[in-house]
Design brief:
By secondary structure, this protein is an alpha+beta fold. It is built from 13 helices and 17 strands. It folds into four domains: about 110 residues, 2-Layer Sandwich (Beta-Lactamase); about 100 residues, PAS domain (Beta-Lactamase); about 70 residues, Orthogonal Bundle (Helix Hairpins); about 150 residues, Heat Shock Protein 90, CATH 3.30.565.10. The strands form four sheets. A five-stranded antiparallel β-sheet has the order 2-1-5-4-3, with helices on both faces. A five-stranded antiparallel β-sheet has the order 7-6-10-9-8, with helices on both faces. It binds adenosine-5'-diphosphate.
């Protein structure tokens, strides 16, 4: 018979067997979960001996997890873990480190190791969990990022250096520019001082600002005006002085002036020149220069007054001599022999030349003193030309020069001239043509209509001509060509000066063409209705 105690024991055994079976189930269940986790996971005792490991853990070493159980974790990882790894885990209870490790036959990978201790409810450490998380990609990214950052930092540093170099270079340039500016400033001041201490008045009108930019001290004195009233002002608004106004107008219009006389009063005379200012094609403005010629003019006046008085004084006795000689030559005071007549003729000619010189000197003095008065009337210019031609006919014939006159086919209108003065002017030209043409040569005097408003007189010869290099001085006082001086012809060098003055006083123009050894051609253009 089975006792109650036996039955109870049997039942207890059954319960225990069932419990064991349940535990086994749980263990399998846990094992399954463990293996299902894709991260390598292990459970170790406090000394680092592997007690449990999942499939992923085993795969790391290309083996089954059971083959790793009982082995020391530090050994299994062959130096990838610090040698006292387990000790550290136990001490710190939780540890997180990064390691690199080459799983068997595979390339090196990076892992994060997480280790956490397991404790009894009383707090005693009985082991620890060991989990690996692969972070190779993260590390790679981190490294790439770091490299990228380093590269960018380097580039930035390089850029910064470049910038700082450029800054330095710029600062250097700025310093140079400043130095140049200072130098230019000094130069400017120097130039300003020079301009200001000039003895001539100087006014500069700039085309860029369309205003007066220089008005020196001498100009202030001449116009009795302070530069502040001129500089930077609209020139139309400068009313002050009519002469200054006229000069400013010419400056702004860019009208060049060559030595024009400006009379402020009897003993304050200036010579005005207006010149272009610029380099090559580029004109930046115009400058007016006022040169004080009062003293020169005063001396000139004294000189011409002296000439005038001396000539007047000489003229009377020379006229007396002329008439005496004429009477002797005409044998009104008794018969003379051939030699006596020859001598007297020579004296008469010399006296004539003297009278002509005196007349020239007197005319020049009058012109220069402004006393040459013109008495304009409507005259028949063709008649006048014929008259001149008649007077020179004998002279030309005596020198064996063919003298011709060309007159217009149609009648010319009357021309407003001072008959005597125009006659003198044209006679001077014909006289020169005959004087400076060798025997056998030809001289022609012609008059024609130039255009509606002007007539043209031409005196042409086949004479010695005027040397090219002396041509520009032909109309100046006392000029005599080197070639005619060699010929020992008589002359004063005043004729053309007087002629030019007369023609210009009529509002006309005189010019010439000449070639040495071939001849000369003088042109005179006269306005029909006078100046
Ligand atoms: P002058 O004839 O009294 O010397 P002018 O003033 O009339 O003075 O002439 C000045 C100079 O110009 C002359 O000395 C001469 O050298 C030159 N000249 C003028 N006309 C002629 C001409 N027709 N042919 C050559 N030379 C001339």
């Amino acid at each position: 018979m089975v006792t109650k105690a036996e039955i109870e024991k049997k039942e207890e055994k059954i319960v225990i067997a069932e419990l064991i079976e349940d535990l086994e189930d749980l263990k399998r269940y846990l094992q399954d979960i463990l293996n299902f986790i894709p991260l390598p996971l292990a459970y170790l005792n406090p000394r680092g001996i592997i007690l449990e490991a999942n499939v992923s853990f085993g795969k790391l070493f290309s083996t089954f997890p059971e083959n790793l159980i009982g082995k020391r974790i530090e050994k299994v990882f062959k130096g990838a873990l610090p040698h006292n790894f387990s000790e550290k885990v136990i001490n710190r209870r939780f540890l997180e480190i990064e390691i690199s490790f080459s799983p068997k036959g595979k390339e090196k990978k990076f892992y994060k190791v997480l280790a956490n201790t397991r404790r009894t409810p009383e707090g005693e450490i009985i082991g620890y969990y060991f989990l690996l998380v692969e972070i190779t990609e993260l590390i790679r990214l981190q490294r790439a990022l770091k490299e990228e950052v380093e590269l960018k930092t380097k580039e930035l540093q390089l850029k910064l250096k470049e910038l700082s170099d450029s800054r330095k270079a710029l600062l250097n340039i700025l310093a140079d520019v400043e130095e140049e500016r200072k130098k230019a400033e000094e130069e400017r001041t120097k130039v300003e001082i020079i301009i200001d201490s000039l003895a001539d008045g100087l006014i500069f009108f700039s085309f860029s600002s369309m205003k007066v930019e220089v008005f020196n001290t001498q100009a202030e004195k001449i116009f009795k005006i302070k530069r502040d009233e001129i500089l930077g002002k609209e020139i139309e608004k400068i009313e002050k002085d009519p002469i200054l106004k006229e000069i400013l107008k010419k400056l702004s219009e860019g009208i060049e002036v060559e030595k024009e006389e400006i009379k402020f009063d009897e003993d304050k005379i200036f010579e005005l020149s207006i010149i272009k200012v610029g380099r090559g094609e580029k004109v930046i403005g115009f400058s007016a220069i006022l040169h004080d010629v009062s003293r020169e003019k005063f001396i000139e006046k004294l000189k011409s007054e002296f000439v005038s008085i001396a000539a007047h004084q000489l003229r009377t006795p020379l006229s007396a001599i002329k008439w005496t000689l004429k009477m002797l030559l005409d044998q009104e005071l008794g018969k003379l022999n051939r030699d006596q007549l020859d001598l007297l003729e020579k004296s008469y000619q010399a006296n004539e030349r003297m009278i002509s010189l005196i007349n020239d000197l007197l005319n020049v003095a009058r012109i220069e003193e402004g006393r040459y008065v013109y008495n304009l009337k409507k005259e028949d210019i063709v008649e006048l030309i014929k008259e001149i031609a008649l007077e020179f006919e004998d002279k030309a014939k005596m020198k064996d020069i063919k003298f011709g006159v060309i007159l217009p086919e149609k009648p010319l209108p009357l021309v407003s001239v001072d008959r005597e003065k125009i006659k003198l002017a044209i006679s001077n030209l014909v006289d020169n043509a005959i004087k400076y043409t060798l025997p056998g040569g030809v001289v022609t005097l012609s008059v024609s209509r130039y255009n509606k408003k002007e007539v043209l007189i031409i005196v042409q010869d086949t004479g010695v001509g005027i040397p090219k290099d002396q041509q520009e001085r032909v109309f100046t006082r006392f000029f005599r060509g080197a070639n005619v001086l060699r010929m020992e012809t008589s002359g004063t060098g005043l004729g053309l000066y007087i002629t030019k003055n007369i023609i210009e006083a009529h509002g006309g123009k005189i010019w010439f063409e000449s070639e040495e050894g071939k001849g000369s051609k003088f042109f005179v253009k006269l306005p029909i209705s006078g100046p």
